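Example record

The entry below shows one chain as it appears in the dataset: sequence first, then structure tokens.
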Amino acid sequence: MLRITDLSVSYGDHVAVTGLSLDAPDGKVLCVLGPSGSGKSTVLRAVAGLEPPRAGTIELDGTRLDGLRPDQRDVGLMFQEHALFPHRSVDENVAFGPRMRGLGRATVRRRVEEALALVDMSATARRPVTELSGGERQRVALARSIAPRPKLLMLDEPLGSLDRTLQTRLLEDLPHVFRELGTTVVYVTHDQHEALALADRVAVMRDGRLEQVDEPAALWRAPRTTFVADFLGLTYLTALPVRDGVASGPWGPLPVPGTPDGEHDVVLLPGAVRATDPQRPRRPGELAVPAYVADRRFAGDHVRLVATPDAGPRLSVAVRSEVVPAPGDRCELALDPRAVRVLEDDGAADGPLALTLTSPSRPSSSEHPAQEPS
């Protein structure tokens, strides 16, 4: 559906995106994930026709978008800044897109009602948007982007101003809505949880380039670089010596088959480390990690311990036991040595990194050991 080839965008002397090639399949949700300043919003603006590319091409459903006005591209874009019409009511804002498409009055009304119901704003349909809170305005902007049912729907941080309850509800509802509409979606966010919950594929950006594109589970279980691992909040161990397929870690040997001898960075997969107790002692093959508890935080269905081992980096561990050690207590953690992966070199690429979404590879079920949620 969407094909971007060798895209580069600059703001004066600042290069925001360089050499980016990316395909988004028809009817799927692609989340573009990255920190502020990584270029993810610039990609959306270029596709929408709001930023002229310095180089590269953009195609939508086989049609080159170069030279087309924004209103000719059949693209819906929800801005971070909302960009609502201040002199119009909520329903008039949402109706604007369908009316511009020349739809009949009954169809426009139905589209408005469906979109407002989705974002829980039906009761405010006749209110002026100037009377709405920031979060309410963001919901109206989301409804307005959905109502025209464009061929490509692009959302730029759409949940950023919403409270946690509504975020959770929309994260549950949006995949169903996207499937019902059959619309290809490009969803930009800096929130890893949003991306992993919504996406069919996730594209991680850094400094205007792509770092990795993968299915959410594969990204979570096999980050390629220390940047991706760190951005996802995973723990990695740097410069471990590897010999004969075994890395010498701070807590014992870690098998890394197929890895050449030398120094390599290693990431601990989610669930690699757990807290032990009398009911769940260390299992055969697990490595003991003696530590003391630096902090503990209640997180609803579990308690999260921040533990400082006698050797190695701090670790964050989910504990579901009734007996939870307090800050300052000694504890023993258990590390599954199978739950580690070697990271690729994290140096800057010499040339543009081109990754495609059209032929995803799926890791076999035997590739990763079964782990508890982290």
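Notes for this example: Residues 346-374 have pLDDT under 50 and may be disordered. The domain at 235-342 is CATH 2.40.50.140 (OB fold (Dihydrolipoamide Acetyltransferase, E2P)).
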